[in-house]
């Protein structure tokens, strides 16, 4: 089992910045991907950004140029730097990872951290 703990959410004014962090612990195995999803009230969970082993990144169109994902492999931590925040970025942000252990790959999720952007 892998545990993910997020931090860094909060309330910020439009145009402001926040940095989310997520630390993985437990029986981590080989992590092949880490990332962030978000879910706004009444909407489905959607990908925000992901980073895979080797360093390739993938961003949702609506955050390109504003958000940056990075990873510290030594600390099993993934970060999401969010700049130029908009009210529509308000959501619960979930950390995600895919880990392979003993030949089995599993997806894991954090508990979520609230990001609220006021206009």
Structural summary, described in words:
- With 119 residues, the chain is mainly β.
- The chain has no helices and eleven strands.
- The strands form two sheets. Strands 2, 4, 5, 6, 9, 10 and 11 form a seven-stranded mixed β-sheet that branches. A four-stranded antiparallel β-sheet has the order 1-3-8-7, with no helix packed on it.
- The radius of gyration is 14 Å and the shape is elongated.
- 31% of the residues are buried.
Give the number of DSSP strands. Answer: 11
Shape: elongated
Q: What is the helical fraction, as a range of percent?
A: under 10%
Total helices: the number is 0
Please, what is the oligomeric state? Answer: single chain
Strand content: over 45%
Termini separation:
40 Å
Please write out the topology.
Blueprint: E1 2-7, E2 10-13, E3 18-26, E4 30-39, E5 46-52, E6 57-59, E7 67-72, E8 77-82, E9 91-101, E10 104-109, E11 113-118
Parallel strand pairs: 2-11
Antiparallel strand pairs: 1-3, 3-8, 4-5, 4-9, 5-6, 7-8, 9-10, 9-11
List keywords for this structure.
single chain; 119 residues; mainly beta; seven-stranded mixed beta sheet; four-stranded antiparallel beta sheet; 11 strands; 62% strand; elongated
